[in-house]
Amino acid sequence: MDIEQLQEYCLAKPGVEETLPFGPDTLVYKVAGKVFLLTSLDREDFRFNVKCDPDLAEELREQYSCVLPGYHMNKKHWNTIVADGSVSTKQLKEWIDHSYTLVVKSLPQKLRDQFL
What is the pTM (predicted TM-score) of this model? Predict the structure, then answer.
């Protein structure tokens, strides 16, 4: 997966907007104004942060070397994924989906029904 594939995948999800609230070097993907993915545009290696269930976050870090505690994020709830080719694009998409779903499930019922 590269940045273009990530953009296309995230923007295809219902209600997603791409923003640059931290300046021109950090893309932030939100649903209903809540962040579910961030990625830096100024790194040589491609990586992104996704929200994750705390128990699953620990398991993934133990199981995959490309999954790290969330850089500049709450490490209990966020993972940094290094897209170094060690896991499939399908797996990366599953982690993105998990993050999106966690955020949507935290929304009020009226909003949640629009996105799930």
Answer: 0.94
